[in-house]
Amino acid sequence: MHKNISTPLRALGAMLLVLAVSGCALNPMPRWQPPENPSGEYDMAYARRYAARAHDAYQKALDGEIVAERALSNGLIGLGVVMVGLVASSAHSSAIVGTALLGGAGLAYGNWNTSRQRQLVYTVARETTICATKAVAPFALSPADREALNVALAKLEEAIAQTSGAAAALESAKAGRAENDPAAIAAGKLIESARTSIAAARETLVNGRKAATNVRLAGAQLVAAIDQISAAADKAILETVPDINAVKGVVASLGAMSASFAPGAGIEAAISNAFRAYSQSGALEGGAGGAPTPLAAEAAALAAELTKLANAVSAVNSRVAGISADFAAIQGCSLQVQFPLAATPSSVSMTAGKASTYSIILGGGTPPFSVRQQGPTVTGLTITSPMAFDRTIHLATTAELAAVSGSSLLVVDAANPPKSTSIALNIAAAQGGGSGNQPAPVADPVATLLQRIKKAKPFTVASTPVLTVTVTAAQVTQVGQKIKVPVTCAPAPASAQAQDVLYAALLQGKTTEETVIGAGIQVPLGTVVFEGTCAAAAPAMTGTSQSGTLMLRDESLVKAQLGLCMTARDADGFWGPRTSAVLERWRERNKSAAKPGSRITDEEQATLADPKLVALCKPAA
Q1: PROSITE patterns annotated for this entry (predicted)?
Q2: Both 191 and 303 in a single domain?
Q3: Smallest Cα–Cα separation from 313: which of 419, 512, 88, 158?
């Protein structure tokens, strides 16, 4: 009975899966057959058909992806029903395992061959073909309109020539007249206005010819734009993560066709001024007995040509005005869409010694993803990479988690070329704890500093000669929030030592318990006041302040940092995460026995301060 039931169920499952994934095997690259073009010329009619073919191809590809996804999901749901039936009928375990493997394979196959990002590439490419078609629509003049534009340009060219001839004739008639002759003065004004009108008309003629040329080339421009859109879309599909700026930006090149359009700029005003100059001069009306003088006749001829010139300019402007007005819409065809690999959150904050779980969601990119840790090793941390086509990283910490600085997760996707992103791991020491690179802050820094100073060993101050400073522990006292520290120096210095010099040396010293005195201590400026014959009178604190805290540069640490090949900027004389991370790498290379995460030892500082070691460092690129 079990065999009779399980066999048809498995057959049904296989059939459902075949139906589910059959739509996933389509070529993801949209292709279309260009329309027939017997003339071989890319006129606007052909270019529009070409763009329509591209639009339909992208629409078909988008529809195919969506149908494939629905078929896949429906098929897998049906396969789940089959699985339930196999279990309920107590089918053989091999049948159940086989069906489960079939479902898993179908899910992986469907995820591999369907992509939301690819669907968006299809959508954007389809929209861009529409945008490009609309952008050149103002150039889609009918044959009759193109012929009318050419005729108007020819008439304008002829009117310019006639007006120029008339102006030259009036100039000849004016020759020989006295400069103060009213008729000569009026003729001069008319000639000057005519020249202005001719210059403006020539500008209209040039712009009109550009418009006619662009009308002729618009079809080829549209075909070229569609081809470039197709190439950019193919590249985006191949890389999976689409470069949408490249797809949409190609249309912006069409904007150059309208950059020089400014027909008729100022010509109407120029012609009006010419007519005004002519009509306002009675000296050009005629000679004795009402007979026109030669000068008046030439002026009348020029006025007539100016009328023809104005009509010719208007005719050209009426043909190209729509083009210059509508083509500005091309600027709206540039959409900004990107799909970089990103993580939410982009950093994770943890507390050392605390067991917790964290989840990180990946966006963009192409699954499957690989995750690996970078920087100092983190103990007590378990990283679970996303399963195939999943987008969630799981982190789990235990009580063994140690505070470490400079560690991160590197996530790489499966795209070609691959995309990557980094997730910072911020692991802070537990409150009151001391694990990690940075000592935990103390609850009462002044009281803690007081106790450490009382246990301070003699420390040295770098001077000539080197001074050994001893704290008179029995006389160290706290007055309010200030600590008075009597000290003696050997040998006796030539001059008193500055307060900040003594303070810097004291912070780097150690107590009888080998505790670094300055570890985890932040106190306001002037908290510690040194007294004695070798200490300068307070206040003389010259250290730099950070949030009201005295931060003093350790010159010996600077030399060690340079020996670690740190840059001059990073070798600041302060102990911190960056120095600790570089030191740990140096310790690993040299198989150091020092405790991981501990501060640099005196022996390490002496070794790293060797000028020969510093000279081996290569300059930063």
Answers
A1: PROKAR_LIPOPROTEIN (PS51257)
A2: yes
A3: 158
